[in-house]
Amino acid sequence: MLFSSVGFLFRFLPVFMLIYLIAPARYRNVVLLAGSLVFYGVGEPYFVLLLVFSVLANYGFSRYMFWEPRTPLKNRADRRAKRRKAALAASLVVDFGFLFVFKYWDFTAATVNGLAGQEAVPILGLALPLGISFYTFQMVSYQVDCYRGTVKKPADFVSFAAYVSMFPQLIAGPIVRYEEIADRMESRRIRIRNLENGLKLFTVGLGLKVLLANQIGTLWNTIMTAGAGNLHMSVAWLGALAYSFQIYFDFWGYSVMAMGLGKMLGFRIPRNFDNPYVSRSISEFWRRWHMTLGSWFREYVYFPLGGSRKGKLRTVCNLFIVWSFTGLWHGADWNFLLWGIVFFVLLVVEKNSYGKWMEKTRVVGHIYTLAVIPVTWVIFAITDIRKLAAYLGNMCGIHRASVMVGGQQLTRYLQEYWVLLIACVLFATPFPGKLYHKYRDRWFAVVVLLFIFWFSVYEIMVGSNNPFLYFRF
pLDDT digits over 394-422, tens only? Predict the structure, then answer.
């Protein structure tokens, strides 16, 4: 079920919120869990069983970590350590095992079969469960935090299940660590003020998704229909710019809606973006983009590998592993791996040369970042390696055929989309956010938000381009 759908806006959300608000405080986690399973089950009726099984298994492993026998045993500390390691290992095998089977098995099998020249490994052709990358990472973070002692006591089953399956961030994040909401899982108050602010925030996210991401996405789709390799350089760059805006406002819009829904439910869901397109370096970009994912890889992969504490060579190796995994986390295809490695190279070069100087500049750093990021998004967007090479060639002025989409089409695209492009540029800056926080309680701000909401509903009713890009991850 999409947040930007009529079913969610006018059926699921009103009914759920009514039940949630009238339910006694001690039963709200039960209502949240039931509502989240219904939310997920509407779109994934079979894979909800996978989610339930994963929750049950991970809850059992976490309880086993904290279990202590009543009878005195020799070497209690050693046995406790072995038990915790065994529980952690088992949970990682289950969680990453499911993720590998559903997301990476066919990619691995196709690669092996290609190298072997025969079908040595069967292709399963399994559908990818929505949000499996996100909820897997949340469960892994919980298990590791239990093992480390960051989580002091195990959550009760309903609280843990509600944490993993919480519908505002179940299918596309942000990735929330249990300790960030542990207190609210145990006790929370629903205030009218939070309901109001949450609804306003949700409306802002809905507008970012429907009125910006969906609309600018049509320009990218239109340019791609001409076929990679048949684009004038200027048109290819315009398409890359359009996709850069589409993926940003799509994912940022979802994250803002998730934050708004969380506020309405009494939670504080962490911020996932901090105006990444105003960055002055690629390093700064990744400190501002998908911050919860970056934090997860830093905390659970980079630091355990040694981080930057064991010399430059080891640091480079650790960064290569992290960024290879980051690329593959986004998708099981070679372009995603290439995308991650490109960022690895850029970050290593920045770290050892011009990075700090670039972040101090006011103009050069922005130009550099805005020139590089659209190229990386093209690598991210086009999974066919031949088409990707052709499109990148177009961006460099290299064409494999006569130019089919050239200067005249560029003029037409700009005439049709110039207002939308200016709006995207404006909303990619901190300025609209500052205005929102300054005037959100004024009457005219409410009028603007009502207009955004109903205009978004209108676009949902008449439009067809409404999927969330990150649902495939």
Answer: 998 887 666 667 778 888 999 999 999 99
Question: pLDDT digit string (tens) for 125-146?
Answer: 898 998 899 999 999 999 999 9
| CA-wise closest residue to 454 among 87, 9, 92 | 9
pLDDT at residue 465 greater than cutoff 70: no
Which pair of structure tokens corresponds to residue 364? 């050069």
Looking up tokens 């690895």 gives: 344
| 324, 340 contact by CB (below 8 A) | yes
Min mean pLDDT across 212-221, 355-364, 369-378, 435-444 is at 355-364
Please check whether residue 248 is in contact with residue 377, taking contact to mean a CB–CB distance below 8 angstroms. no
290 is catalytic: no
Q: Do 302 and 323 touch, CB atoms closer than 8 A?
A: no
Residue with tokens 């929370």: 188
Catalytically annotated residue among 330, 366, 399, 437: 330
Q: Tens of pLDDT along 252-261? A: 999 999 999 9
